[in-house]
Amino acid sequence: RWPRKIFSGIQPTGSMHLGNYLGAVRKWTELQKKRENITISIVDMHSITMPHNPPTLRDNIFTMAATLLACGIDPSHTTLFVQSSVMEHSELNWILNSLTTMPRLAQLPQFKEKSRTVRDVPLGLFVYPVLQAADIMLYKATHVPVGSDQLQHIQLAQHLARAFNARYGDMFPVCNAIIEENDGSRILSLREPSKKMSKSDQNPKGTINLSDSPEQIIEKIKKALTDFTSDISYNPGMRPGVSNLVNIHAQVTGQSIDTVVEEAKQLDTAQYKERVSEAVIEHLRPIREMINKHLNNRNELIYVLEMGSEKARKMAQTTMAEVRQRLGL
Ligand code: ADP
Ligand code: NA
Asked: Are the beta carbons of 110 and 149 closer than 8 angstroms?
């Protein structure tokens, strides 16, 4: 009964990395090609849940916008906007806060993981999955493409939509996650292949950013943690480091895992790392050029984001007018 609508977000905590790109952004561009109704938010309000530097955040927002455009997000088709420019996100967040419980939020794996890294856990870090649900619900999104790390957050969003509908009358679709639950859906840190590649990783050498120079990419892949077996095989459980490289290699070349492994039969790990570097550099070259082109035209970026905010705001305001009425506000 709900028209198909897709929402997804990306934090401007740092620059976009290979995990974001292969696990999320590249899939958004595929959905866009299929003429799906899609809304993408640069979720800066999520980025302030951990300590941050304001001028850096401002730059990161523009870099993220430039990177999304460089990856092929087309603002004439996709609604692309910055979360903080649509204040309804915070308003719906507040309303949803009363529809869930503290124990439920405390058990979310991302919270457990991140809260371990700070001494005094900010309240914002605790409730940010609720803000994420508000992001989705404001646009009455029916489908949310995310990496497998986000599954529990989508389940919370589903729970909040049901809870709202039950208490105040049917008004929100219960969203579906679009997740590819296979080994390849998660790109791991090059330095600690037990963890996912992440912007918030304390060790930036484990993360390949889309804006990295060829030299930086070569250096990072050269130092990627592998194991003491020198041949190349794919076994994520036993050999996470090498398998992560194989997965990255397969994804950037569009080849199957089997083909990649077969062609690497004669190589040792050091030689194979060079091959992976070349493939990654080749794949990212045109994207990196486009990022720089967009960054050199800040006025155009500002214009694109303002147009996106206007479109998003219209939808968000319509939803919030109905929400206020349902709540008796
Ligand atoms: P990060 O954890 O790097 O800050 P975000 O929270 O901004 O990433 O997530 C943006 C999108 O990228 C989400 O859909 C998320 O699931 C996906 N994503 C993040 N890290 C990875 C990864 N290492 N592998 C695959 N997808 C990822
Ligand atoms: Na994240």
From this structure: yes
